[in-house]
TrEMBL record:
Species classification: Eukaryota, Fungi, Fungi incertae sedis, Zoopagomycota, Kickxellomycotina
GO MF, one annotated term: translation elongation factor activity
Pfam families: GTP_EFTU, GTP_EFTU_D2
Every Tr-type G domain range: 124-354
Protein name in the entry: GTP-binding protein 1
PANTHER family associated with the record: ELONGATION FACTOR TU-RELATED, GTP-BINDING PROTEIN 1
Keyword Acetylation recorded: no
Matches recorded under CDD domains: GTPBP1_like, GTPBP_II, GTPBP_III
Family membership noted in the UniProt record: Belongs to the TRAFAC class translation factor GTPase superfamily. Classic translation factor GTPase family. EF-Tu/EF-1A subfamily.
Organism this protein belongs to: Smittium culicis
PROSITE patterns assigned: G_TR_2
Amino acid sequence: MTLENTIQYKVDFDALDEQMANLNIDSDTSDIVFKTIKDQISDPNTEREDFLIQTFNKTFEIEGPQTIFTIGPNDKIDSSLNIESVTPTDKPELNKISDKANHQISPRTLYYLFRKIPTRIEDTMEIRISVLGNVDAGKSTILGVLTRNILDNGRGSARSAVFRHKHEIDSGRTSSIGMEIMGFDKESSEVITGDQNRTLPWPEIASRSSKIVAFHDLAGHEKYLRTTVFGLTGGLPEAVMLVVGANAGMIGMAKEHLGLTLALKLPVFIVVTKVDMCPANVLEATIKQLFKLLKSNGCRKVPLYIKSTKDVIEAATLHSGSDRTCPVFLVSNVSGNGLDLLRNYINFYPQSNKYNRNKPAIMEIRESYSVPFVGTVVSGVVWQGSVHSGDQFWIGPNEFGQFTTTVIKSIHNNRSPVSVSFAGQSASFALKKVARKDVRKGLVLISKGTDVNEEMPKAYYCFEADVLILYHSTTIDLKYQAVLHCRAIRQTARIVSICDQEDTLRTGDRAKVVFRFLVRPEYLTVGSKIIFREGRTKGVGKITRLLSPEEEREIMKHNISQKNK
């Protein structure tokens, strides 16, 4: 069994007491679960298997479709047990992380990864990772190496496989939002790839995978910052992979991207590339600079230098539950050093459980297309609920804040036709009776009920937000305008009220501010994070209140009265 032969379901014995508390299982039953798991590993039995399936299904409902299980020396399990996979597809797959890996971690401890095996493509576990970093750091190259399971030749052969446009191939620089997927096999949990002469299509990868990782390749050049911010906010990533060149360190846009990631409170892990061509003293200086930056007051991160499989497991467990840790990997895309640890970490990384499938469905539109013989097609990430073919939806708002109705004709997930798409998944929808010219980025699809008198969703021009000014050369006053990003929304907004200050803001100030969109109203939700920028000015915040037209008029009257004093 190879190092990549990770197990497909995870339960952490160290945290089992907490899990049992969440499941409302008493201590006696907890002991039964422990014993049943151990007995099932050593002597498979149908009755035990049914009991474990019920227990793990409850765990998956709470923790998501993946969890890691540790059997330590106190659990009295023979470390030489030979674990076989559970073959039925409707049951959790159980594999030992590997004899070699387990011995490397501890000769008396076994680690198991449990992952729910999907019976349909639409049930496949999916996580999204945005790839950031300075220009020429090697972002597209490492994506080509990871998703194609190949090595680079040192002259850009791997990155050419993921570029979308000819001018990107010519210049070697990404200028658009690229997307690549990496699937982990249902049986062995190895990366699914083709051979040297054939790249596997997405539908084949999706059909063979128990877990799919979607990478968003974002531009590193400063002139493409608008596109990068849109990809970071609209893509709803569950983690950010910050790529740093070992020969250059944290320079240019790398610090900018790290700042945006921290402002949005997204988990981040760092991949230091080009270690094969970097002198030892330069690499050491880069690592020191990186660790110093992560520990600084602005970041307050705990860097974890990943050297072994034990570090990978600890990082995947800690990183998913804490925003303080920051794993750091050293890799070479030419020699392949460190790539196995990075792949294992991505494989172990759990899915976020922030999505609710029981609420009415909402999806924000990131892209729109006109497909011959199909019609208008939109794509994005489902926030909440589930979308079925034939469902009725509100779509909007238009220029006047109005919503119209449409019907979902068909659904594609990872370019495969499916019947349903769940919260947390990326999907494309063919819409009925919707013209391509009436669709733009930032529109939303909201589930429509059966009541004919159902109230139309509301769009807002004005909202209140708690903001932090990251940088501004002078002061920000009333009527200040900037481009505001909120999820897939990208529109110019004006400050119409500053509640907590003397109508001025400077770098580092926090305040409650009222923004107003200049062009059209948008569908907003309380708690959504925002980024606003204008030139080198940048700020972040969170929406705290949506203002009705009456409240907006009161603010305008107050501003006029203050001006006349």
